[in-house]
């Protein structure tokens, strides 16, 4: 049930407090809680019109460390704001904002800017802590229409929701759920106290909430999951077109991944969730058909994103990119299971998901996913748990003890599961292949074994920053040759995730990333600002050159693997969607032809996942998973971004309708979907 916003008197009092009415320092303490453990803290100290914030999060050996200082004006909005520290992957933050004499000016990683300081627009910081979300929400609650123009650009909106009770005894209080949108692709769910102060930021995988209320965290994660489900159920109902008769897509060519060619003009007919046939172009239709004219474009089998950590907030964005299948490589098992069931039941539109069983050792650097284990016996139990629930693969992770891997792999193989993973700390790819790995995850996990010493700890950011050493690596050295020969000889598959390494090693402050040139202008303002920021600290002389050289060595290594017949698997670890198109372009840079890259992302992956009988190509009797692009993608993979129509399980989606729901400008227009004329009575 919706509840009204607090009375204007309460809002005025809250704004007065923020502007300096308080006479003593007010310290607000927040805890950052993952699914398994506390991973960070936030402390905001308000004294008069000043606020100082300390924010530090470390999960999976990485996370932001931020210090902020704000001065608030009489309107409760910042007149000065400094933000310093480091981002999740270690790049430096030095952000400044000032409002003076009717002019607002700022500097962030994208550069400098100015705007009208008296025009009512709110500055949205690039690198702030979650405390800023409460600041924005307070301003929006005081605004008449719940919408606020922002600097450097865009609009924030606040949608009020239900009121819930949190805490017990003397700590019990009512808080209001609100959805803050306009910052990025998706709204952020917040809980606000009666005076407008931030109580919590919630998501299905973690919460930032007031100290003393930690017991409420599981319930708040469930609340976030429910709110997300309600949003995506509503979007799915609006965006999914479900023909109640045959669907005929005329005037299209079909990409055949087996031959790597595009066929003659034809019609593809779908009935329910299956392909009824690929018919000659002049084959007549039948009564009751829904019809799309493909205008000479090409139908491509649905793509497989093979390195997802998927949540419901990325289901539709993956469909819009032609991705109809995702291999999830590590998640909260209960959250993922619920998402899979919601997709299978038709409540949420999304790709079919094949999960890998994530197993991580317990340590101060643990990733809070899947099953965390503290000894070899628990590791074997985790393998058995996944096998009993139909998983076809386990993924071993950074904090696993290397000496547990051989028995874990043997048990997985005994139960019919594939074994993949990161290289556990203090080990290397050679040892893990000897232990029984069938697949190696991330190219850096392999190459670090060529440049690190035996005592260096890859559970930290070192597994990323040490890549700069690759620039000086001789790829013909004995250490490299031994690993490469073992990968080839043992027929070990490699999932390189090249695109994430491109971002890590090449992105620069203020520059449009190399891999996002074709999509940048279509992204929402928040995503554009995030993109124009370096991931790693490149402040020392020679850093940029070393990291760029490292990326060149990565491409050369992947290219050699391809030339020597290593089975390379396309996946992004970036959420899929538009990033997956970039991954395929990088496969082409590494030696694939566009047709080979498309085959690898469709039929090859369907077969690798044991689903080649029903997926991977457009043939009679197979599941209706495919998408339409203009022109011939075997000549230009960039056409994938212009996907005009996606069919998944026989349901039709138009990217031109999906993208605006996430603040993205569509890349192409939707073809007309013509419904059959109603039958005469």
Account of the protein in words:
This protein is α/β, with parallel strands linked by helices and 681 residues long. Among the domains are: 231 residues, no CATH class; 127 residues, no CATH class. Helices cover 27% and strands 28% of the residues. It is built from 17 helices and 34 strands. It has a 15-stranded mixed β-sheet with strand order 8-7-6-5-4-3-2-1-15-14-13-12-11-10-9, sandwiched between helices. Strands 16, 17, 18, 19, 20, 21, 31, 32, 33 and 34 form a 10-stranded mixed β-sheet that branches. A 6-stranded parallel β-sheet has the order 26-25-27-28-29-30.
What is the topology?
Elements: H1 8-21, E1 26-34, E2 38-47, E3 50-57, E4 65-72, E5 78-86, E6 92-100, E7 103-108, E8 111-116, E9 122-123, H2 131-141, E10 147-151, E11 155-166, E12 173-181, E13 188-192, E14 198-203, E15 206-210, H3 217-239, E16 247-256, E17 261-262, E18 266-271, E19 274-280, E20 290-293, E21 298-301, E22 303-308, H4 315-320, E23 323-328, H5 333-344, E24 352-355, E25 357-361, E26 371-373, H6 376-388, E27 393-396, H7 405-414, E28 418-421, H8 429-435, E29 439-441, H9 443-447, H10 462-465, H11 478-490, E30 493-495, H12 498-506, H13 525-531, H14 543-563, H15 578-589, H16 594-608, E31 626-629, E32 645-648, E33 651-653, H17 655-658, E34 673-674
Parallel strand pairs: 9-10, 16-20, 16-21, 22-23, 23-24, 25-26, 25-27, 27-28, 28-29, 29-30
Antiparallel strand pairs: 1-2, 1-15, 2-3, 3-4, 4-5, 5-6, 6-7, 7-8, 10-11, 11-12, 12-13, 13-14, 14-15, 16-17, 16-18, 18-19, 20-34, 21-31, 31-32, 32-33
Helix pairs in contact: 6-7, 12-14, 15-16
């Amino acid at each position: 049930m919706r509840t009204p916003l607090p009375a204007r008197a309460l809002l005025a009092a809250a704004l007065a407090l923020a502007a300096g009415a308080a006479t003593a320092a007010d310290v607000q303490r927040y805890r950052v809680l993952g699914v398994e453990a506390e991973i960070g803290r936030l402390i905001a100290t308000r004294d008069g019109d000043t606020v100082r914030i300390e924010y530090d999060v470390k999960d999976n050996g990485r996370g932001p460390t931020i210090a902020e200082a704000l001065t608030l004006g009489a309107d409760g909005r910042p007149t000065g704001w400094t933000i310093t520290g480091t981002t999740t992957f270690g790049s430096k933050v030095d952000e400044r904002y000032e409002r003076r004499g009717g002019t607002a000016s700022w500097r962030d990683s994208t550069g400098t800017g100015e705007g009208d300081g008296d025009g009512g627009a709110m500055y949205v910081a690039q690198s702030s802590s979650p405390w800023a979300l409460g600041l924005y929400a307070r301003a929006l609650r005081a605004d008449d229409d719940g919408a606020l123009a922002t600097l450097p650009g865009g609009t924030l909106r606040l949608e009020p929701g239900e009121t819930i009770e949190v805490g017990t005894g003397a700590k019990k209080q009512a808080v209001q759920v609100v959805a803050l949108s306009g910052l990025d692709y998706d709204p952020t769910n917040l809980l606000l106290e009666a005076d407008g102060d931030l109580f919590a930021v919630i998501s299905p995988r973690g919460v930032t909430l007031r100290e003393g209320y930690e017991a409420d965290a599981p319930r708040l994660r469930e609340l976030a999951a429910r709110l997300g489900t309600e949003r995506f159920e509503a979007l799915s109902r609006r965006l999914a077109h479900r023909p109640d008769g045959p669907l005929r897509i005329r005037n299209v060519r079909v990409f055949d991944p087996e031959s790597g060619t595009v066929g003659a003009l034809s019609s593809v007919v779908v009935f329910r969730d299956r392909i009824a046939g690929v018919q000659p172009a002049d084959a007549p239709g039948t009564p009751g058909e829904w019809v799309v004219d493909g205008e000479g474009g090409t139908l491509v089998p649905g793509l497989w994103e093979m390195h997802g950590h998927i949540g419901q907030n990325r289901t539709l964005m993956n469909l819009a990119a032609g991705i109809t299948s995702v291999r999830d490589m590590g998640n909260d098992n209960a959250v993922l299971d619920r998402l899979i069931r919601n997709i299978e039941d038709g409540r949420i539109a999304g790709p079919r998901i094949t999960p890998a069983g994530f197993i991580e050792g317990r340590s101060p650097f643990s990733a809070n996913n899947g099953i965390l284990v503290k000894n070899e016996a628990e590791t074997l139990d985790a393998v058995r748990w996944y096998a009993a629930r139909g998983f076809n693969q386990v993924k071993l992770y950074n904090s696993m003890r290397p000496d547990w891997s051989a028995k874990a792999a043997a048990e997985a193989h005994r139960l019919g599961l594939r074994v993949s993973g990161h290289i556990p700390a203090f080990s290397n790819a050679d040892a893990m292949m000897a232990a029984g790995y069938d697949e190696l995850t991330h190219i850096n996990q392999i190459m670090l074994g060529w440049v690190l010493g035996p005592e260096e700890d890859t559970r930290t950011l070192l597994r990323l920053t040490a890549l700069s050493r690759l620039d000086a690596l001789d790829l013909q050295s004995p250490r490299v040759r031994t690993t490469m020969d073992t990968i080839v000889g043992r027929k070990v598959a490699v999932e390189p995730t090249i695109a994430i390494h491109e971002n890590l090693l090449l992105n620069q402050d203020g520059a449009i990333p190399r891999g996002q040139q074709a999509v940048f202008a279509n992204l929402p303002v928040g995503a554009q600002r995030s993109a124009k920021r370096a991931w790693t600290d490149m402040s020392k002389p020679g850093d940029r050159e070393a990291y760029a050289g490292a990326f060149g060595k990565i491409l050369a290594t992947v290219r050699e693997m391809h030339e020597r017949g290593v089975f390379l698997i396309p996946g992004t670890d970036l959420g899929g969607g538009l990033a997956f198109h970039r991954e395929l372009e990088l496969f082409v840079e590494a030696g694939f032809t566009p047709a080979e890259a498309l085959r690898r992302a469709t039929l090859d992956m369907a077969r690798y996942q044991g689903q080649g009988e029903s997926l991977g190509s457009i043939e009679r009797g197979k599941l209706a998973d495919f998408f339409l692009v203009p022109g011939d993608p075997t000549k230009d993979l960039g056409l994938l971004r212009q996907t005009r129509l996606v069919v998944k399980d026989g349901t039709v989606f138009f990217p031109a309708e999906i993208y605006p729901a996430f603040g993205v400008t569509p890349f192409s227009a939707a073809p007309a979907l013509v419904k059959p004329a109603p039958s005469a009575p």
